Amino acid sequence: MSSPAIDTTAENPQFYLTEEHHPENSTMLGFWLYLMSDCLMFAVLFATYGVLGRNYAAGPSPADLFDLSLVALNTSMLLLSSITYGFAMLQMEKGDKANVLIWLAITGLFGAAFLGIELYEFAHLIHEGAGPTRSAFLSSFFTLVGTHGLHVTFGIIWLVTLMIQVSKHGLIAENKRRLMCLSMFWHFLDVVWIGVFSFVYLMGVVG
């Protein structure tokens, strides 16, 4: 924290800080509050799917549409990206900038693979006539899974931005704080996807 300076030009001297002061842990607290709001949004989407997920309108059901082997591959991509991000955080604690960038790049590749498989699945469903307007089940499915996919997309953009920041400025305190926030966000998306895989895909095919 910087020492206060005195403004002697004013009629009544005033104390002020010569540098901006960032309250300790304020960013992390704010980001936790954001994640809680995101939890509420996904809870609403899961609840909507729970209500509408069996309204097929005489159309295809989950058992007719979902390929569990493809979804399992997609799930492994996201889970592996979470592991590689953890390796990046370990290297950050060691102050190893080069390896942080390497593990972040690998994380981004796994995330991009996840998105690629998801887009392929969406395109295949639409090609088969099972688009989001076909039934209430498909509307709620595309909304839930698509919202998660958008989060992953934003996470990859954020990750690339942080890679540029780290490469230019190194592992300064601000970049470490940003990497911690992205770590929480990325692991949060993993937890949500496990819920999607279990509740939407697995229960839809097996149940």
Termini gap: 58 Å
Number of β-strand runs? 2
Strand numbers in spatial order across the main sheet: 1-2
Q: Please mark out the parts with pLDDT under 50 across 5 or more consecutive residues, or reply none.
A: none
The overall average pLDDT, rounded, is 90
Strand content: under 5%
Largest beta sheet, briefly? Answer: 2 strands, antiparallel
What structural class should be given to the helix and strand makeup? mainly alpha
Number of helices: 6
Estimated helix fraction: over 70%
**Strand and helix order:** EEHHHHHH
Shape: elongated
Radius of gyration: 22 Å
Subunit structure: Heterooctamer of two A chains, two B chains, two C chains and two D chains.
Keywords: Cell membrane, Electron transport, Membrane, Oxidoreductase, Transmembrane, Transmembrane helix, Transport
GO biological process, one term: aerobic electron transport chain
Membrane topology: Multi-pass membrane protein
List keywords for this structure.
mainly alpha; two-stranded antiparallel sheet; 6 helices
